Every structure is written in structure tokens, then in C-alpha cells.
Amino acid sequence: MIYISYIILGLVAGIFSGCFGIGGGTILIPALVYLFGLTQHQAQGTTLAIMIPPIGLLAALRYYYSGNVKLTIAGFICLGFLFGGFLGAHLIQNLADRTLKQLFGIYLLFISIKMILTK
Fold first, then answer.
1. For tag attachment on the chain, is the N or C end more exposed, with fewer CB atoms within 10 Å?
2. Where in the sequence is the domain holding 68, given as residue range(s)?
3. How far is CA 28 from the centre of its chain?
């Protein structure tokens, strides 16, 4: 039964990802922590593993065929993301789980306030 719950979570995150370009940080991580009992570190690591291609491929292709993907920009960001992800994962490993959870929450709060209050 737990595997079906994981599939449902993936479906929900996939729908939000396809609709809004979100899923990993805003859907999967909180769900893995609060619904499935993972630590913040485990949730973030698991979410990073989930995002390895071809998970986003079909959604990206749909956007691409509609003319809504800037491949050059995506390529350069991907290059930075590759090295930045490795560096960030390395730096965060010794941080206390509670501290990491608080920093993650502050980040989400800041982004949500900015999006709500700005045009």
C-alpha cells in the first residue's frame, strides 16, 4: 500500500510540475518529511534522485513543442546546476536536520511572500 501512496505523491507532484514548474521543493520535500517521516536530508536527497532525467522529459517536451523552452538558457543553467547541486549537497551534509528544515521553510516563506506581494 505504501508504494501506491508514493505513486500518488509522484502523480500530484508531476501535475503541479507540469502546471506550474514546481514539484520537488514545494510538493515532494514537505510531503516526504510530514507524511512519510523522512528526515529533511533524506527528503532532499530522495527528491534530487527523483529529478534525474527522464522524469521531467515529457513535460519539458510538451513545453518545447509549444515554443516555450529556451534551450540555450536551459543548457547553461543545467551546467551550473550540475556543479552547484554537487557543491550544495556537499556543504549541507553536516548541518543539523532541524536547522536545514528551518532554512528550507524560511526560503519557501520568503518566496511565497514575494510572489504574493509583487506584481
1. C
2. 2-117
3. 7
pTM to 2 decimal places: 0.66
Q: At residue 100, does pLDDT exceed 70?
A: yes
CB pairs under 8 A, 24+ apart, for 114-117?
none
Alpha-carbon gap, residue 37 to 32, rounded angstroms: 6
Length of the chain: 119
CA 97 to each of CA 84, 93, 104, 106: distance values in angstroms, whole numbers, following the listed order:
21, 9, 10, 14
First to last CA, the chain: 44
- For residues 74 and 63, give the distance between their C-alpha atoms in angstroms, rounded to a whole number: 13
Domain count, the chain: 1
Number of Cβ within 10 Å of residue 46's Cβ equals 16
